[in-house]
Design a protein that fits this description.
The protein is of the alpha+beta class and 332 residues long. The protein has a domain of 182 residues. The protein has 4 helices and 15 strands. Helix 2 packs antiparallel against helix 3.
Length: 332
């Protein structure tokens, strides 16, 4: 019987062992809807497996399987143009407005209520080669960078500049391009479930060096005479905080946080929005802070910056964040 059991485990695919990523040359199609459908058929069961896992070790193993298979899919020629629409309920696929890169990421909630994040940056990199004084050759290549969540190792995240190998993990829901004289910065709005007691909204910054390597954090904030590399708001797990972008005013508007009692100042698990709004406006290459701003803007369906935070909406920002907030409350 023992021999039969061992034989059974070896012949059953995925029984007791992680499966190897499926090679993309086995796809029935090389591009377009056929390739997308094939890749989705590989990824969906792994997504389901990850979210069905019970223990932290099972979740970590399932997340690795999903990461390995997703990497194999994203390395396929033509994958940058695939939308993976059927995966968007559980996986964030956020494309930059200039269509030069996209962020693919997702989360895993651990048994202690903390979160770990996974993902990739998939980008188009233009390499320009000079031939003599007048001739130039432009070669476009696709680059893929895994995002490795090292949040617990970053001691001072407000002032840290890191790369994809030491990533301050979060769930991104908005990309805002901002140009300076020297480069283009992509301001990112994100959410972090943090733990059972508090959650975070974060304004991060992504930029690319001359080799196309991504870097997070930048000196483009002027926040109450301080100059952090990213902005982190921490507040109660039972409260909502608005953090959104106004395309018409080119400003980031967010709910002002305050402790529910004065004596609880500094204990962020007791902070909630006090119904006023502050914001950042982009000027002279920096996001400059302004207190008590007017958050009333004309409705902009493209950016989906208007919604009742208690009600789900069609866009990724509200649905995904609210789903995760409900998951936290249910677990508590």
């Amino acid at each position: 019987m023992k021999k039969l059991l061992i034989l059974f485990l070896f012949i059953q695919p995925g029984a007791g062992f992680a499966q190897e990523p499926v090679r993309m040359d086995k796809s029935p199609a090389t591009s377009g809807p056929g390739l997308e459908k094939f890749q989705e058929s590989l990824l969906k069961p792994l997504i389901k497996k990850q979210y069905a896992a019970k223990t932290d070790s099972e979740k970590a193993a399932a997340a690795k399987e999903l990461t390995d298979q997703f990497e194999a899919c994203l390395q396929t020629s033509g994958s940058f143009d695939l939308d993976y629409d059927s995966l968007k309920k559980d996986i964030q696929l956020l494309r930059s407005p200039d269509n030069t890169f996209r962020i693919i990421n997702w989360d895993v909630q651990k048994s202690d209520g903390t979160y770990e994040y996974y993902g990739f940056i998939q980008s188009k990199f233009i390499q320009i080669t000079k031939h003599g004084m007048f001739r130039k050759t432009r070669i476009e290549t696709m680059q893929l960078y895994p995002l490795i969540d090292r949040s617990t190792e970053i001691k001072n995240p407000d002032n840290a500049i890191t790369d994809n190998k030491k990533w301050f993990g979060m769930w991104y829901y908005k990309i805002i391009p901002s140009k300076t004289k020297t480069r283009t910065y992509y301001t990112l709005l994100g959410w972090d479930g943090n733990d059972k007691y508090s959650q975070k909204k974060i304004i991060d910054v992504l930029s690319f060096d001359n080799n196309g390597v991504p870097h997070f954090g930048a000196d483009i904030f002027n926040f109450q005479k301080k100059y952090p590399k990213r902005i982190i708001f921490e507040y109660s797990a039972t409260c909502n905080m608005s953090l959104k972008y106004s395309n018409q005013k080119d400003s980031i508007v967010f709910g002002h946080l305050a402790p529910i009692e004065p004596q609880l100042e500094g204990q962020y698990q007791y902070y909630c929005s006090d119904m006023s709004n502050d914001g950042f406006g982009f000027k002279k290459g920096k996001w400059n802070y302004g207190a008590d701003v007017n958050a009333v803007n004309d409705k902009d369906e493209k950016d989906k910056i208007y919604h009742d935070p208690r009600k789900p909406m069609a866009g990724n920002e509200s649905n995904t964040i609210i789903t995760r907030q409900k998951r936290k409350k249910k677990d508590k």
